[in-house]
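We emphasize that the prediction below concerns an isolated chain of 326 residues; any contacts that depend on oligomerization or on bound cofactors are therefore not represented. The input was used exactly as deposited, without trimming of termini.
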Amino acid sequence: MIAVRPRRLRRSEVVRALVREHRVAVEQLVAPLFVVQRDEDAGPIQAMPGISRLTRLGAVAEARALWELGIRSVLLFGLPEYKDAVATSNYNPEGIVQQTTRSIKSALPGMLVVADLCNCEYTDHGHCGILGADGDVDNDATLELLARTAITYAEAGVDVVAPSDMMDGRVGAIRHALDARGHTGTAIMAYSAKYASAFYGPFREAAGSQPRFGNRRGYQMDPPNAREALREIALDIDEGADLVMVKPGLPYLDVVRAARDAFDVPIAVFNVSGEYAMLKAAAANGWIDGDEAVDETLVSFVRAGADVVITYFAKEYAARIARRAQ
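Result of the prediction step, given as a token string:
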């Protein structure tokens, strides 16, 4: 009987690379950018070492740096100067996301600009939509707001709108509104399975989007549910989503795999702020090798079935790949 020795194909980095089953391509990565309307709001984010809130011109400079490293896609989060109950700053054609999109497109016409489409950064109450008389988010009134905002994003040059609010029917409402205004080429990447997660904490600091009362469990998904995620994804695809997303990433790799097995559409995963902060903190304390942990984390998303990886590690990962290639 011939001995089976799988270790033969692990003996050197060359042979390991030769038979490697999954790789993370820089082109798969999307870099999130926080962009502020007031210059004085720019600066480092304490809970996310290495990540900063950027001015509009700072975002253009960052986009150039990303482009040089081979990253071709950015995801914009806007921090407005003014907030009110109905997110007026979000659908303002001169809002920070709209202005930044035009600036990036002017400097880098080939850069794919994705715009997060939600209201929590723009409302004075911090919830993702318009509140009804009972204090709950009014689903259908919020759909009108999302559609109105999506049109201003598309008119500014956004390539992909990414609704993250988890309102029922929002993909269909946005698709209908975009098509009615002639924006048939603007794609929709739906945050289809977005969980009410503890891993968003650092983002709330970065975006100033902590709800002033209550929480978002009435519209974001309950973490124990997986079958429900597949239902949400199916609904978004039926309504016209071009890409679908699972968020967060690491605690929901099983959902990514289930979605990959069930649906033949591009699947994105969001490696969220809390996941980033945990690895950064552990590496800073010498408890893990930071670079190796990042590599292992990113490949886990691809191995689970993701086509697109949204990650705050995008720039440092791409820079490391570039150094290895020299």
